[in-house]
């Protein structure tokens, strides 16, 4: 389909808007709030590092992996923030096969071609209590680097609970992919950050199976999955020069993508009424679909 900039501008101008943490604003489109920054904070950076390493394990090993010199977001580019942001027709042939791209778009907003093609989707979810804390820290580091006023956790929490957050409502986004993964398990693999924290090697093997590249007996013996898990660990990635000082997009310090990485960190930031409020939302919006999260 051909898009004309004027029509796009008109469409965007007509959409309902809410002031976002970082200007200019969020736009409501097809019932989701679209932001200007990558934001779900569910473990995308980790997933990118793992999938890149799994798929390219015959080309790279821990001593020559491009992860040593590039942030995972550079190796697995975002469709909306990088690839198509300034180019309506990027040349996908520039990317070696198998091609790995990422998106924060809700499932319902993915192009039909993606849904109908053989392209596979790996989704990572995260319990909302830790997600709201993680996104608050992320924005704090962004506003600090832009010299903008900070927003309190209370303010951030309130808009999160209203569903007004990048690609939110958070629960609709998550349930959208969850339902697809149940209906089409060969198309959509649904992962939970908490499960990766519990046993990352098991999840690495699951991803390899899903993409049709299971670990061979030889690889099992050599501990390749363990090696990948170690290369992509928070400790390792956080310590690399590129992730301490680099920027993957203007104003996006790579280091803001690597913080604590702990399940249950919310106990240090959310008051009991906040926790009760978010648990109520989880029960109303996620539990009816069989979607539950470990929160500690
Ligand atoms: P994004 O949606 O903006 O891309 P995303 O990578 O999804 O961010 O989330 C960042 C979270 O993943 C951070 O969690 P925290 O704020 O609770 O600490 C970050 O620390 C964590 N993270 C990043 N890399 C890793 C990793 N290799 N292992 C475990 N957690 C990680």
Automatic annotation (TrEMBL):
Its EC number is 2.8.2.-. It comes from the Eukaryota. The keyword Transit peptide does not apply. GO terms for molecular function: sulfotransferase activity. Residues 40-289 form the Sulfotransferase domain. The keyword Transferase applies. It is an enzyme of class 2 (transferase). Keywords: Transferase. Belongs to the sulfotransferase 1 family. This is Sulfotransferase. It comes from Corymbia citriodora subsp. variegata.
């Amino acid at each position: 389909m051909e898009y004309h900039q004027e029509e796009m501008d008109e469409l965007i101008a007509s959409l309902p808007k809410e002031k976002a943490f970082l200007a200019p604003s969020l736009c409501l489109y097809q019932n989701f709030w679209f932001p200007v920054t990558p934001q779900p904070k569910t473990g995308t950076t980790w997933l990118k590092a793992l999938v890149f390493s799994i798929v390219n394990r015959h080309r790279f090993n821990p001593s020559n992996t491009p992860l040593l010199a590039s942030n995972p977001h550079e190796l697995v580019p975002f469709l909306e923030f990088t690839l198509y942001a300034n180019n309506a027709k990027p040349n996908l042939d520039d990317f070696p096969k198998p091609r790995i791209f990422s998106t924060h778009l809700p499932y319902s907003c993915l192009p039909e071609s993606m849904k109908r093609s053989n392209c596979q989707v790996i989704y990572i979810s995260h319990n909302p209590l830790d997600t709201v804390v993680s996104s608050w820290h992320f924005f704090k580091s962004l506003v600090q680097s832009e010299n903008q006023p900070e927003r309190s956790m209370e303010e951030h929490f309130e808009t999160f609970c209203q569903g007004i957050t990048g690609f939110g409502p958070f629960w609709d986004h998550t349930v959208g992919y969850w339902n697809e993964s149940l209906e089409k398990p060969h198309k959509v693999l649904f992962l939970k950050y908490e499960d990766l924290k519990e046993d990352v090697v098991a999840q690495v093997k699951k991803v390899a199976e899903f993409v049709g590249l299971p670990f061979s007996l030889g690889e099992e013996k050599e501990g390749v999955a363990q090696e990948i898990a170690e290369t992509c660990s928070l400790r390792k990635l956080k310590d690399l020069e590129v992730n301490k000082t680099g920027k993957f997009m203007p104003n996006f310090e790579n280091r803001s993508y690597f913080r604590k990485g702990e399940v249950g960190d919310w106990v240090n930031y959310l008051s009991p009424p906040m926790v009760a409020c978010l648990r109520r939302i989880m029960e109303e919006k996620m539990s009816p679909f069989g979607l539950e999260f470990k929160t500690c």
